[in-house]
Prior knowledge:
With 228 residues, chain A is an alpha/beta fold. Chain A contains seven helices and ten strands.
Amino acid sequence: MTPAGSLLAAHDLRKTYGSTPALDGASFSVHPGEVVAVMGPSGSGKSTLLHCLAGIITPDSGTITYDGRELSAMSDADRSALRRSDFGFVFQFGQLVPELTCVENVALPLRLNGTRRKDAERTALAWMERLEVEDIGGKRPGEVSGGQGQRVAVARALAASPKVIFADEPTGALDSLNGERVMQLLTEAARSANVAVVLVTHEARVAAYSDRDVTVRDGRARDLEHAV
Amino acid sequence: MTLLDEKRPPAPAPPARPSRIAPWLRDLALGIRFAAAGGREGWTRTLLTAVGVGLGVTLLFLAASVPHALDARSAREDARSETKISENPDAQGKKSDTSVLRISADTEYHDRTITGYLMRAEGSHPVLPPGIDAVPAAGEMVVSPALRDLLNDPDNALLKERYPYKVTGTIADEGLRSPGELWFYAGSDTLTTASGGHRVTGYGDPGPTPPLAPLLVVLVIMVCVVLLAPVAIFIATAVRFGGERRDRRLAALRLVGTDIRSTRRIAAGEALFGSLLGLLIGLVLFLVGRRFVGYIEIWDVSAFPDDLAPDLRLCLLIAVAVPLTAVLVTLSAMRSVVIEPLGVVRNSRARKRRLWWRLALPLAGLGVLALNGQAGEYEVVNPYPITIGAVLVLVGLALLLPWLVEACVNRLRGGPVPWQLATRRLQLSSGTASRAVSGVTVAVAGAVAVQMLFASMNADFNKATGQDPTRAQFYAVSEQVGGNAAVDTIERFRATKGVTQVIGMVEAYASKPGKYSEDDIQPTTSFNVGDCATLREVARIDSCEDGDAFVVHPRNDKDMAGWMDKTARKGKEVEFESGRGRKLRWTLPADAKTVVSRKDPVGEDRWGIMVTPGVIDASTLPGASTVSQIRIDESVPDAAEYVRNTAARIDPGMRLVTLTSVARDRQYASVQTGLQVGATLTLLLIAASMLVSQLEQIRERKRLLSVLVAFGTRRATLAWSVLWQTALPVVIGLAVAVAGGLSLGAALCWMVDKEVADWLVFLPLAGAGGALILLVTLLSLPPLWRMMRPDGLRSE
């Protein structure tokens, strides 16, 4: 069932919230270093698919395989550990811890994995430099612009050397110029580090940075290359 | 007609100078409208504020009722007191159609005091104490509702056994001090003045209630300040509940052109509505709670619903002060935030907190106390400087706290993730935490100060009795000595379950016979009849057998020994006389041995003539009473109750005193009880306040918590962060409270001219503060777990 060589694959996922179906037999896969855009209109189930793939929520039925392991068979603690070690996240807004400085925010996933503070902050600064936000390391999220905040979030997602980054509308709150720059930096950094990106968006302009599009409609994913 | 001739149109009236009040009223009204009709979110915030303020207002109404409650209790106590009591039969009121004989029959049951009287009407129209319709007939009793319940409880068979009376009625409220009071009146047909009855000719003590001792005045003032200051702080905290959400809503108003001042006034209007609703809730809670107050008893304190009538002036003060506080606190709080259009709310540039004026207040308080000077034991205390000084110190500590918390947390660096999350959170905004903790600080500082004062006054109010409860636990005195009563009393106590030893003697007074002028003092000494074992407990006797007599000299008091030897002349007569003129002469045996006394279990030195039963028939002694000292085996369950039951069977009017090594002053005890009751309520209120703040913060961070969950943050990490976030300000607050409390306590001790007896009084209170941290953290965890769900990531 799992497409050959895929790092993360889902098959026939179903999920309902109350009586509302969010996923209705969705399938999906992503290869290492591949950038896949998940597109679709509002309420189509894009974010639910992303949350299922990331092990944040469990589907009602269907299978999700990551690196040969069945996600739905893992305990909550194991899935949390997997998210800490192998996954990174970028959301649309409200993701940075407001009381931590930007560099502390970037270092947070490393510290949660047990890296010493100084080492974690050194790595964090290197990623911030790459994302062109090293000058705001000592500032708090409330003191920086939206574009800078998103770049900090991207740096955070990459800092722990994940294998997959899940980005849910990462440019949704940005103007087009800032959005383009964030996407450029995100995809360049991911490709150079061989990190897969699952990018949820409803903007074709953003999806253009991906290697492949998957469209979700009424809870079904049309994965043109890997749907089974 | 030219154009110039035309009549010029009237110039428009100059615009009226805008009123300063109108914008205020308009904005306040708008704020009230937002609070009242702001949808679910608006209502949640308003309700949070209203419930918080309501709880505080309930306590304020309760406090405002205390003066009336105390007056009412005191009035009822006065009304049931005898108008005239005398133990001298010659001075007693004359027997009449309305007179009543009565004798106290107090007892204890499982550490609760039961007060009562045996009564016997001497005529057909006896005077009655309030709360009863008639003097109970012999074999009958009327009881308070609490005592009735106690007697009806099958678990209290031992108590029921003590009262072999038929309960024929219940004492009405006007005859009781409080609903929980255990009180009774029992009828007797054998009570006489000879057996200890006092003649009562009326009820109601018109005499003024003795004023509280100056030291107690200081204590009462301190207790009030300590208990009410945190309530005021709690109310001020409650009006800021849900502030962050409100600020977001106000940002929308800025977008449509509302200026900063208007925004603040609108916020004040919201707070005003919340506080007015809180006043209403507080009033309703108070009125409803008042109906059930009779069922509540905390540390033996209870009150009738009617007693809780708040003073009207204090009610008006509450009604004005609470909304005013709400408005002022909101306006002050809004100064530290900048609400911008586009929904952006940012903390304004943090104004550095200044130390000098925060430090000035507690120092000024200590200064006021110092200037007031020391109060002597019998001096009239001026309560105002003490109140002002104590309030300045305590409020100053509350103001000092935000500066100190900020100064401390700003220096904190590094540490594990939970610690970092907590310290960074406090660095970003320590105000909320400080406000919540300031209540703890004031309560603990005040309580430390009061406890120090208590400890220093301990010697004054807790007097060592000299009694030795290890040798005997009870001391019984009965004036019924007729026939074999003395021997019978001792034997019956000895036969009581759990009794290991009885020291029983018949006690009378012997005088040197002769005629004495009015200026002469007739030599007199005590005369005791007891067996050898008993006499050895009160005198150093080597050999003794029945038929022996002793002259017992006091230890180290030659003058007293000389005085008693004037009566105790070996081979010479002594005379016994009852108060009613019966006389008896008896000769002290010539072979009586002279010995010295030893302290008896009651802590007294007894001396005089002591004889064994073979020397004299004790039942023939005029004016004698039976004195028993009883030792029990404390491992026998209810041994004390068996002794009390035996005493009641022998003589219902027998005085049975429980021996203790320390006797506590009653007023002192009630002030201490008040502090305990109040401190418990205050700490619970503060815990509620901290919990609401914590829950509000968790709710505000729902999305962030979900994001943290998304990238794998452990539950324990966030739980520890909540614990640190609560613990850090509380620990700093407690440190301030302990330092401030010890300083204030030392100042108060100095004022009342006492040495600080115990510097460690803060330990239990610090422990209570620690328990508070754990309680708030534990109660915060379930909502924290609930918020740590992925639902927060969903935006559709």
